[in-house]
């Protein structure tokens, strides 16, 4: 019998239904992404998808089959969430490149004006961080926690008895990435380090690698008529909104109901959002916009997955009984 969490407001969502919602969303992302790219005419190296298939999809699928056979529901949920996260790499990457490939004029001047309106001095902020080696190092590690957090968050949520939230988190990640791609079509930007002409060599403590690493791909998809999308060479080429800041907000939300992890991950993700300005190519307004996109995605999955205070108390029981 299907295990369902219920609260005072009515029925919550079962693990089985949450699973269906997530897989349906992943399928929809593919249905949306490929026609967009084909209409735009961007070439795709389909062979590069094989790395993802061999290294992630097939092993994860085998693990899921094993978990189903052994009735290891927590393991199944964790592997399915991770698998779907990796599967979303393809449509998310395609949509982000297609957005920048629309090739509208860069929006850096508009983004600088927005920062100025907020009273934010990017150069002064960079100078402040760069003069403090410990702070610069902490922010660098926070910035690089992006991928480990995306991988570990669903697993930890399952371990703490929140399987439905694990599925919801991955769905929200896909939503915020696709929404950010759509918005970025109108706001392609080279970013702060390039526009402000601050070189990596001019910095004492900040590692600005990610402030420049994306430029070749960014310019390639915009200017090279022979550009080919290669999954293994894919970079984060979106500036506005900041996906890093959006994921920081998402991960902080995901752990908010886990008391043991709530504040450690809140602090980590505040730092990760800040590091998008100091260690990448983002304006302050990019971070604010990213958090806004994440808030909308979180609100949508909260409604769709019927997450509520009453459901939190019974998710652990559901994970065991499903």
Task: List the keywords.
4 strands, disordered C terminus, disordered N terminus, single chain, 322 residues, two-stranded antiparallel ribbon, globular, two-stranded parallel sheet, mainly alpha
Briefly summarize what is shown.
With 322 residues, this protein is mostly helical. Helices cover 69% and strands 2% of the residues.
Q: Between the first and last Cα atoms, what is the distance in angstroms?
A: 8 Å
Which structural category do the helix and sheet elements fall into? mainly alpha
Overall pLDDT level: 91
* Tally of strands: 4
Give the topology string: H per helix, E per strand. EEHEHHHHHHHHHHHEHHHHH
Q: How many separate structural domains?
A: 1
The main sheet comes to: 2 strands, antiparallel
Q: What is the CA-based Rg, rounded?
A: 20 Å
Shape category? globular
Low-confidence stretches: 1-11, 316-322
Protein architecture, described:
Helix content is 69%, strand content 2%. It has helices at residues 15-40, 49-69, 73-87, 89-101, 108-117, 122-130, 133-143, 146-159, 163-184, 192-195, 209-212, 215-223, 243-254, 259-278, 284-304, 309-312, 315-321, and strands spanning 6-7, 10-11, 43-44, 228-229. The chain has a two-stranded antiparallel sheet. A two-stranded parallel ribbon has the order 3-4. It has one domain. The chain starts with 5 loop residues before the first strand and ends with a helix. The chain has 322 residues and is mainly alpha-helical. The protein is built from 17 helices and four strands.
